[in-house]
Write a structure and sequence with these properties.
Layout lengths: L31 H13 L4 H13 L6 E7 L25 H9 L1 E3 L2 E2 L5 H10 L9 H10 L17 H7 L3 E7 L20 H20 L4 E6 L16 H16 L5 E6 L19 E2 L2 E2 L13 H9 L7 H20 L5 E7 L12 H4 L3 E4 L8 E3 L3 E2 L3 H8 L27 E6 L2 E6 L2 E6 L3 H4 L3 H8 L27 H10 L1 H4 L3 E4 L18 H15 L12
Parallel strand pairs: 1-6, 1-9, 2-11, 3-12, 4-5, 4-6
Antiparallel strand pairs: 2-10, 7-8, 9-10, 13-14, 14-15, 15-16
Helix pairs in contact: 1-2, 8-10
Length: about 575
């Protein structure tokens, strides 16, 4: 029978000092000076000496027992999948999803109304989540080579994390955490030892050996980047990575790997960090059918019946539960994902660690027709944080926060001494004392576009570097033919450069952006939108003199920001 976890608030309360003061400190802290300094900064902004003293005590007490961290990152999850968003409710106000576990921790947590992915496709967004850096700080070969050739940073699927980069698992491991990662990779650079044909026989011993060696190479990449535990890894998106005989999601298999990590963590005398990255709800297959894939299919071959995971409610029960709730078939995959979250919560509670665990939930970017662009439909990403007895639980935060803020926030909670420099900031203080003393704007990047959002306005600049404008016909053709939809083209010079900047004529996802936002707006070099009143970004106000001052100020602010970043961007960095 399906049940929702129940929190008993029986251990440490991460935000409430009273539940900490009577406990022994199991982990010797080495960062007292750093946190005293942080406390001093925060104290100076409080309105009274008494309030300042209480807040300082709260900071110090909150680190008597360092919290566990669970970072849930979903893939291409739609806004309609979340009951806490307007899109997740019907006209009658009733929820469109059966997701009791996600609903519970979202409603008990703090929801970020304005959480942004600074780059709106999988790899660079995850780079920022796991490093706290803008993806244009990447040093991976493909990105660096493109930068050297064209001078302008082209953030895309080329921004991978290397062992020499400062990443969350690496820094947390150095700081005494037991670290684990499962699920979708697509960001830690690892070898693909064997490229297998789509029609490969997945029952063949030689193919199974190659699949296993590929999996071990992914696990090695995780270990090299600071994970103590790594298992159940998908190299990237499910379609295109594996033979057709294995091309299906297997959330149960990923979840089982996470449960195994938590079982190992239970035996450790140290806090833990779990990076739980799902393949849902990316392709293959349409929404509402992904859970129907064979439970035997995994990146390492076909599981035997006796090895099928049994950590979530049966897949057979999913459609029955959705039908009983009176919901549409589309909601089945959301329930499958929710079952995974429920399994984690149940395990944490069984361990007695739930109330000393912070859960961060983030979908890697928007997929409302804007993926691969800097429109709201690509950059605005559903997200929330949960911890036992949040003082502002059940509220929503309107401040602009971003994926680059996760790492510094986690370092803050983990009491990491001398954390690495990041482009993001810790939003920890916002969780107890919401304040206007926070970033007022955010500059984002993808491909050949940059944007800045401030005070309900957004400016987008689209600049094609001279080197790409002047590519030889042979090179344009080579790049264009990497996409199936360009293979019937004869005049490759006619193919326009798209926002992501890698392929003349663009990728399939870029064509969807053009369809969603319109050709006239999409291909405009300069765009200005009043997103507070025009959230769908349909009206480009760039030529409206009434907003000339707003445009000038946004450009000035973006110029200052881009001059501090990697690479050129035409007039903004001259």
């Amino acid at each position: 029978m399906f049940t929702i976890y129940k929190a008993h608030n029986k251990q440490c309360n991460i935000f409430n000092t009273n539940s900490y003061r009577d406990q022994q400190m199991p982990y010797k802290q080495k960062g007292d000076n750093a946190f005293t300094y942080i406390a001093a900064i925060l104290v100076s902004s409080l309105s009274s000496t008494l309030a300042a003293q209480e807040f300082t005590q709260d900071i110090n007490a909150a680190h008597d027992k360092r919290p566990n961290i669970v970072m849930i990152v979903t893939d291409d999850q739609h806004r309609i999948d979340f009951n806490f968003l307007p899109e997740g409710r019907g006209k009658d106000g009733q929820p469109l999803n059966l997701s009791p576990n996600i609903d519970k921790i979202a409603n008990e947590g703090i929801i970020f109304n304005n959480m942004y992915a600074t780059s709106s496709v999988c790899t660079p967004s995850r780079f920022s989540v796991l490093t706290g850096q803008l993806a244009s700080r990447a040093t991976s070969h493909r990105f660096a080579s493109d930068l050297q050739q064209f001078k302008q940073a082209n953030v895309s699927f080329n921004t991978h994390i290397l062992p020499e980069n400062d990443s969350l698992p690496k820094i947390l491991k150095q700081g005494g955490y037991f670290t684990g990662g499962v699920g979708k990779n697509h960001v830690f650079e690892g070898e693909i030892l064997h490229k297998l044909k789509k029609n490969a026989d997945v029952t063949s011993p030689s193919i199974i050996r190659k699949l296993t060696e590929n999996q071990n190479a992914q696990i090695k990449a995780y270990h090299d980047n600071g994970f103590d535990y790594a298992a159940r890894i998908y190299t990237g998106n499910v379609p295109g990575q594996y033979p057709k005989g294995l091309e299906a999601h297997n959330q149960d298999w990923i979840t089982e790997g996470a449960i195994e990590f938590l079982s190992q963590a239970e035996q450790k005398q140290q806090p833990f960090f779990l990076y739980f990255a799902t393949t849902l709800e990316h392709g293959p297959h349409k929404q509402g059918s992904k859970y129907k894939g064979s439970p035997h299919m995994t990146p390492i071959g076909l599981l035997s019946d006796k090895d099928l995971p049994k950590v979530q409610p049966s897949r057979e029960s999913i459609s029955h539960r959705i039908k009983s709730a009176g919901l549409k078939q589309r909601a089945t995959d959301v329930l499958w994902l929710d079952d995974a979250v429920g399994a984690l919560l149940t395990k944490l509670e069984t361990m007695g660690e739930l109330d000393n665990t912070i859960i961060l939930y983030f979908t890697d970017h928007g997929v409302e027709g804007g993926k691969g662009s800097l429109y709201q439909g690509g950059t605005l990403a559903p997200s929330f944080i949960w911890a036992a007895n949040l003082s502002k639980a059940g509220t929503r935060l309107d401040n602009i926060v971003a994926n680059i803020d996760f790492a510094p926030t986690i370092y803050d909670f983990a009491n990491i001494t001398n954390p690495p420099k990041t482009d993001g900031m810790s939003f920890r203080k916002l969780l107890t004392e919401p304040s206007d003393d926070w970033r007022q704007s955010l500059t984002s990047e993808i491909g050949m576009t940059r944007s800045i959002i401030r005070d309900g306005w957004k400016y987008i600049a689209f600049r094609v570097p001279e080197g790409k404008k002047n590519l030889s016909a042979k090179e344009r053709k080579k790049k264009a033919l990497s996409q199936r939809h360009n293979r019937s083209v004869t005049d490759f010079d006619s193919l326009p450069w798209m926002h992501m900047g890698g392929i003349p004529g663009g990728r399939g996802l870029e064509r969807l952006v053009v369809k969603t936002y319109g050709k006239e707006n999409y291909f405009a070099s300069d765009q200005l939108y009043h997103v507070a009143k025009d959230p769908k970004e349909k009206i480009n106000l760039i030529d409206d003199e009434k907003y000339a001052n707003i445009l000038e100020n946004l450009k000035k602010e973006m110029t200052i920001e881009l001059k501090q970043r990697v690479g050129t961007f035409e007039e903004f960095t001259q």
